[in-house]
Amino acid sequence: MTRSGKPLDAFKVDEKLCLVAEAQLELETEGSPVRVESLSIGLSNRSPDAPPPFCSSLGRLGANDGRLLRESIAELGEVLAAMTLNRVEAAK
Question: Are 21 and 76 in contact (CB under 8 A)?
Answer without folding.
Answer: yes
